[in-house]
Design a protein that fits this description.
The chain is α+β, with helices and mostly antiparallel strands. The protein has two helices and two strands, in the order E-E-H-H.
Length: 73
Amino acid sequence: MVRKLRTDKVNGIVTLEITKNDLRNIIDSVDNMIDRQKRNLLEHLPSDEEDRRRLDDYNALKEDFVKLLEILV
């Protein structure tokens, strides 16, 4: 279960408390987003810069969540 701890509207930051299982579910969801974006890039060659950047953003997000999960384990 996700619980909001703090919100900083000025800086656009939300601090959340989540379980390890929720974090794994988020990582799985980001994996699915990555796979979908890769398929989209392959289906629409040549791909544009925005689509490649979105894939890079998803990969970076996944790496950040995996690092957080490694801290818990």
